[in-house]
Amino acid sequence: xxKTQTATLxxxxxxxxxxxxxxxxxxxxxxxxxxxxAGKGCAVTDLAVLSVTQLRPDCLHLxxxxxxxxxxxxxxxxAALADCYQLFLGTGKSLPSRLAPAAVLGRVTxxxxxxxxxxxxxxxxxxxxxxxxxxxxPGTMGVLRFECDRRVAIPAGLEPRLLEAEQSNSSLVxxxxxxLKIFRRVRPGINPDLEVPWALARQGCxxxxxxxxxxxxSSPWDATLGVLQPFLHGGVDGWAQALxxxxxxxxxxxxxxxxxxxxAEVHLALAAAFPVEFQxxxxxxxxxSGMLGRLxxxxxAVPELLPYASGLRSAFTELASLDTFRPAQRIHxxxxxxxxxxxxxxxxxxxxEGEPARPLPERRRAQSPVRxxxxxxxxxxxxxHAHRPLRPEWxxxxxxxxxxxxxxxxxxxxxxxxxxxxAYETDRAVYEVLYEARHRPDWLPVPMAAIExxxxxxxLRRLTP
Length: 465
Known about the structure:
By secondary structure, the chain is an alpha+beta fold. The protein has helices spanning about 15-30, 125-135, 190-200, 240-250, 255-275, 280-300, 310-320, 360-365, 370-385, 390-410, 420-440, 445-455, and strands at about 45-55, 60-70, 80-90, 105, 115-120, 140, 145-150, 160, 170-175, 180-185, 185, 215, 225-230, 235, 275-280, 325-330, 340-345, 345-350. Helix content is about 40%, strand content about 20%. β8 (about 160) and β9 form a beta hairpin.
């Protein structure tokens, strides 16, 4: 990372101990209603304010620990979980104009903020603009450190707007020039969505927008909090384009082929930027054990999986029997059609955070590129099954074209690893079933269609039947 100049600012800030009693009730009610809160449908059982930084008199930055019960399974109540969340809280005697009702937490009745209304400051223009100013002027403020690539001049006065489509994070777009991703769920360590694009930029990879600024915290541990990157103005994600093609009956194989080439190009750059490992039988058994555990847990939570469990396990037992050495490297970790954008006639890959629910060390671990390929293949099927009438042949042609494009760019065809591809695709489908059962029950038939197909095949020798 480039060196930065620092200027320590020491504003008078309410302490965590004084804020917790005042905020506890408001946060217990507000947090579970946010799309990025991990405990969907679960109440907050305990709260702790870990750090407070006053960005200006009417804007506080908080890191809070929220305990909640894991989503219950059919076997009984879920385990207790704890997550750290990043909050930007605005304060005022009255609410700013044009603030959405969902942004309001309520009025504080005690403590240093008594009598003030609290709201999500990211939805308020002046607070959002302040973040860009801080990113453009490297320095520290309390436990926060703002850093940037000093070769890039970030202009002031860009109009901010909060994107509505975010789920696990929040993103601010500034004047269609930059996008700031703010990690709501914070984990110790450098976030892959900063680490990976920065490394790819050094490799000269133009498929991924390079970070221009970022900020992090030093307490309660070092962690990445947000990343500013160029905004791909006019970019349309692959999911939207796929649905448009299905709606109009347009062929999508050319786009699928090009996304395959883009994926392979990024994988090649990642292999040059990070160490490559060669993993054999022990890693095959470790992978299979993790997949079997996730299948077992998902089957307890979603009984619809039980009739297919035996067939699904066969994919993982085949993986466990593999004893050949295979390359493993840094990958995307959560690749699907929503993570690729076409802008100015080029496909780009975005969002390298990986699956936010998985531990950060796991997301940074070297893995087979086949995992990313399997994620994209599942995404083509998702699009085809989300459309009415169903278009299974559309997905099949896109899957073939994607793998062909990947092979043309990388010189290696992922279809040459049928057992590994089937295992990763099955593991992904199991994850999708659990997600849909918890969050979008109406969508459950989509991954269940893949479950039925994958369970029926004792081995995946070819991508096509």
